[in-house]
Design goal:
globular, about 75% helix, mainly alpha, Four Helix Bundle (Hemerythrin (Met), subunit A), single chain
């Protein structure tokens, strides 16, 4: 393991769960945005990027569904609804790919990331 990998691992281990989730959402949104903006060159990466986003949302939905999660019920239901929407949209995009269809996934990820990062007002 090189120095930069050790630094990154240490940085991640010191973060709160919400910061990790925020970063993961931003990372997947950024990759989807890169594919959207460079569709002709990058659309071969679409399936993998959508799968990573779907897995991330499956993890978020599972975490929210746990009884120990201290979130209000309304927020839990909203996140679960968003996850279901993302799963449906992912299938739709895989079936009929188009760059503009990625906008909603990118926007959802970025807005949730802002909320998790405490930047909802920025």
């Amino acid at each position: 393991m090189d120095v930069s990998q050790k630094y990154a691992q240490t940085e991640v281990s010191g973060m709160k769960q919400s910061e990790l989730e925020s970063r993961a959402l931003i990372k997947t949104a950024s990759h989807l945005n890169l594919i959207k903006e460079h569709w002709d060159e990058k659309n071969s990466e679409l399936e993998e990027a959508l799968e990573k986003n779907r897995k991330l949302w499956a993890i978020l939905a599972s975490a929210v569904a746990e009884n120990e999660t201290p979130l209000p019920e309304e927020i839990k239901k909203s996140i679960l609804s968003l996850a279901m929407f993302i799963f449906q949209r992912t299938v739709e995009i895989l079936t009929h790919p188009a760059p503009e269809k990625l906008n909603i996934l990118i926007n959802i990820n970025m807005n949730i990331a802002k909320g998790l990062g405490g930047n909802a007002d920025k």
